[in-house]
Structure formats: structure tokens, C-alpha cells
Amino acid sequence: MNRFKRIFPALLPLLAVIAIAETAVRAGWIRSYLVPAPSSVANAIIESRQELFTALFTTSASALIGFLLSTIIGIAVAVFLSSSKAIQRAFYPYAVFFQTVPIIAIAPLLVIWFGYGMRTVIASAFVVSIFPVIANTLNGILSTDPALRDLFKLYGANTWVTLFKLRFPSALPQILTGLRVASGLAVIGAIVGEFIGGQGLGSVVDVARTQQRVDKVFAAVLLASVLGLALFGLINLISHFTLRRWHASEQS
Predict the structure, then answer these.
(1) Closest CA to 232 of 64, 77, 104, 75
(2) CB of 197 within 8 A of CB of 120?
(3) Read out DSSP for the chain?
(4) What is the pLDDT of residues 164-179, one digit of tens each?
(5) What is the pLDDT of residue 96?
(6) What percent of the chain has pLDDT over 90?
(7) Given a cut of 70, is residue 116 above it in pLDDT?
(8) Domain presence at residue 127
(9) Residue 151 and residue 142: Cα distance in Å, rounded?
(10) What is the CATH number of the domain that holds 46?
(11) Does any domain span residue 7?
């Protein structure tokens, strides 16, 4: 019952939008070739379920691998950057570069470098999602309580002990925040990569666009959104189990 009370407020706007959209399209207020009725989108999912869910699996695999790579490499890069101010000044601007370059502009280059297929899609997801991991992890590590750092130094803890027993645990809430952002970006990067050089939902959207199948486009976009929500929910679940005993954000 308590779970239903938490979910119900979020369902109300969704149900209202679905009802309004269905009514507007059926009444002719909105042209169906611009915005399809929700019932048409549902029918497209049912009719093309094999194609759509096969594409969803392909996109999920690419986005998940790209996200895991951005998590591992992003945290490692942030640890490296946190080792000294000189290293931050020398290398952090290049990390920002990943955030400022539009992925749609470099996606053709990824095809040249990695060829058509899953590797290009993974690379696209990785490039888009790595910066939030680096930025949030670095900020969390650098925000460690100075008094606790001095205490570790007083007891003769070396750099690695301080990192793994103090700085990294204290940065965990911000790391998880970065992962929440990165999880959604990984899906976006995977879809963009599939527009250029892969299969999956991005390819389905591109083909359906040329066929003027707006209902199928919306169906594929809906599944991509569900994938993003699933990854976001997974990070929230990890956050709950890792932070609930000691961090205020998970104790309510």
C-alpha cells in the first residue's frame, strides 16, 4: 500500500497526458502523422514486438557496456586527476572536451575508427557518459573533510589507504549522482551511435522515419526511455543499499 502511494502521484500526470493525447488525435485537433495516438503506439509495439524487442536488447547491451566503461575509466581518471593540482590543470580541460564536443558531430569519425556495428555504438555511449562520472567523482574526492584528512595523516596513513578508506567512501554519494546522469546519457549516446553505424532502436527510428511510421518512431523512443529509466533505477537501488546506513539522502 505504501509503495502504491509513492507511485500513484507519478502515474496521474502520465495517465492525464495519455488521455488528452488520445482525445486530441481522435478528435482531429492534432494530425496523427505529427503525433500518433497512444493507442497507435501500443499497437505498433504489439505488431512489431519481435523487431522492437530485439532492437531493445541490442541497444541495452551497447548502452550498458558503454556505461560500465565510462564508470570504470571515469573513476580511474578522477582518482588520477585528484592526485595533484598540477595534474588537474594539465589534464582536466581534456576531460571537459568530451562534454563540449557534440556526439552527432564525431559519430561519423567513430564509424571510420571502429567500423559499423556494436563497437561504434559502445564508443558513442562511452564518450557521452564519461564526463559526469569524472566531474562528480573528482568533486567528491576533493570535498573530503580536511579534518579527517589531517587525522589520517597524523596516524601515518599512506596515499592509497587514505584514498580507499576515507576519500573514496566520502565521495560515494557524488559518484552515484554522476552515475545517475551518465546512465541516461549512455542510452542517448547509444541511440546516436545507432543512427550512424549500428542496429538497435536508433536504426529502427531511422528506418521508421523514412517510412513515415510515426507510431513506430514513438514506440522505439518509448522503449529507449524505459531503458534509460531502468538504468537510472538500478543506480538508485545501488545507492539505497550502499548509503542507507550512513548517508542522510537514503535514510528518509
Answers:
(1) 64
(2) yes
(3) -HHHHHHHHHHHHHHHHHHHHHHHHHTTSS-TTTS--HHHHHHHHHHTHHHHHHHHHHHHHHHHHHHHHHHHHHHHHHHHHTT-HHHHHHHHHHHHHHHHS-HHHHHHHHHHHH-SSHHHHHHHHHHHHHHHHHHHHHHHHHTS-HHHHHHHHHTT--HHHHIIIIIHHHHHHHHHHHHHHHHHHHHHHHHHHHHHH--HHHHHHHHHHHTT-HHHHHHHHHHHHHHHHHHHHHHHHHHHHHHTTT-GGG--
(4) 888 888 889 999 999 9
(5) 81
(6) 34
(7) yes
(8) yes
(9) 16
(10) 1.10.3720.10
(11) no
Residue from 196, 199, 191 nearest 109 by CA: 196
Q: Is a pLDDT exceeding 90 seen at residue 77?
A: yes
**What's residue 147's pLDDT?**
83
Q: What is the pLDDT of residues 57-76, one digit of tens each?
A: 999 999 999 999 999 999 99
Number of domains observed in the structure of the chain: 1
Grid coordinates belonging to 230: 531502468
Higher pLDDT, 7 or 234: 234
Asked if the structure places residue 199 within a domain, the reply is yes
Show the domain range for 134: 41-250
Residue with cell 538497435: 200
CA distance 193 to 108: 9
What's the Rg (C-alpha) of the chain?
Answer: 22
- Kindly report which listed range (6-10, 63-67, 198-202, 226-230) carries the lowest average pLDDT score: 6-10
Residue 171 placed within a domain = yes
Amino acid at 139: N
- Grid cell of 174 as nine digits: 557524488
**Dihedral angle sign, alpha carbons of residues 105, 110, 111, 113:** positive
Taking the CA atoms of residue 56, residue 60, residue 63 and residue 66 in that order, the dihedral angle to the nearest 10 degrees is -140
